[in-house]
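Summary of Year 1 activities. Much of the first year was spent building the evaluation harness for sequence design. The harness presents a backbone, in tokenized form, and records the residue chosen at every position. We chose the following record to illustrate the format because it has been used consistently in internal testing since the harness was completed.
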């Protein structure tokens, strides 16, 4: 049985009961979490995680909530937010070290200011470094793992530093799922600060023109299947602009589902299921989710059946 008193004795950070999670996500959707904790350093995080494991309590790590959909019923367990207290950025001998809680925009800005190239394409991604590392976030042909040296994680209660090769980075995934990312180090090529600023601005403008930035969303819902673009497939199936309660498949970018009119997480799930069924039926392609579902039953995303005519 989880004791709040015990958690308070091992963690000096914020601890809240029945905390609404919707404001902590870019979808602005989802119910509350039973217990919300902000450990203040690695020792506290380690102690809390050890206790949660001992008590067999389910927990989740929250970054900036820009790649998740939380159920309308919320999450039964503990949310650990390491955004606030793990966000340091340093450079030493040309190696940039970024804490897992650092916002990607700040990380990119830091690198640009220090004349370090190769992160500019990440500028408009609204996540934290930890969230980006876990899923190997990327854009415009680059990925966060490109110039990475190593990643420090909390794994099975131990703090480990893993070489980039040991992390198994691949398209929007890694072998780090289940670990808690604490920080990562980067060996970035040198660049002219002014050139890097220009490139960052160009890519930001391109991004803002192509994405529905005015509505709450979680970025691309589906991964691109090999050699294809999920957005193009969805568009070719005539699904742009379709609504599901308050959720809408964006008119601007079909791989974005937006919370257009006071939608619910259930509306987003309806949209996801419909898109997957139609694309499977019309194109024979099974779209895989890029976003993480939290607090949903395992069958929330329905299995695909050929018989489901659309
Ligand atoms: C408008 C918009 C545009 C986007 N564009 C892109 C894009 O171009 N490319 C791209 O790759 N993504 C994009 N995304 C998705 C998202 O921003 C990235 O995936 C981002 O890296 C997620 O980081 P986060 O901190 O928000 O993670 P969260 O959404 O908080 O969490 C995502 C997952 O990572 C886990 N996690 C978070 N932090 C840690 C940690 N420290 N240790 C272990 N696990 C952790 C969570 O438990 C969860 O499973 C976009 C999103 C939006 C809303």
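For this record, the design step produced the sequence shown next.
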């Amino acid at each position: 049985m989880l004791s709040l008193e015990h958690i308070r004795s091992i963690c000096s950070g914020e601890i809240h009961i029945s905390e609404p999670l919707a404001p902590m996500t870019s979808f602005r959707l989802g119910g509350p979490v039973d217990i919300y904790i902000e450990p203040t350093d690695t020792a506290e995080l380690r102690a809390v995680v050890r206790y949660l494991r001992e008590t067999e309590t389910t927990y989740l790590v929250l970054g900036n909530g820009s790649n998740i959909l939380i159920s309308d019923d919320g999450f039964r367990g503990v949310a650990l937010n390491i955004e606030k207290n793990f966000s340091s950025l340093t450079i030493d001998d040309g190696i940039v070290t970024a804490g897992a809680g650092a916002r990607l925009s700040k990380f990119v800005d830091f690198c640009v200011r220090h004349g370090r190239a190769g992160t500019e394409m990440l500028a408009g991604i609204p996540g934290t470094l930890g969230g980006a590392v876990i899923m190997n976030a990327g854009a415009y042909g680059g990925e966060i793992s490109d110039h990475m040296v190593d990643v420090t994680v909390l794994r099975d209660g131990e703090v480990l530093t893993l070489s980039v090769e040991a992390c198994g980075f691949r398209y929007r995934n890694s072998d780090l799922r289940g670990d808690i990312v604490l920080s990562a180090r980067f060996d970035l090529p040198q660049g002219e600060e002014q050139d890097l600023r220009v490139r960052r601005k160009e890519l930001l403008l391109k991004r803002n023109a192509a994405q529905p930035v005015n509505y709450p969303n979680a970025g691309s819902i589906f991964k691109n299947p090999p050699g294809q673009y999920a957005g193009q497939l969805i568009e070719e199936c005539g699904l742009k602009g379709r609504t599901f309660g308050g959720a809408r498949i964006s008119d601007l970018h079909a791989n974005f589902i937006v919370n257009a009119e006071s939608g619910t997480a259930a509306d987003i799930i309806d949209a996801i299921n419909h898109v997957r069924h139609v694309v499977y039926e019309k194109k024979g392609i099974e779209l895989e989710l890029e976003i993480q579902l939290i607090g949903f039953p395992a069958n929330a995303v329905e299995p695909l059946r050929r018989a489901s005519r659309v």
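The two ends are 48 Å apart (CA to CA). Quantitative recovery figures across the full test set are reported in Table 2.
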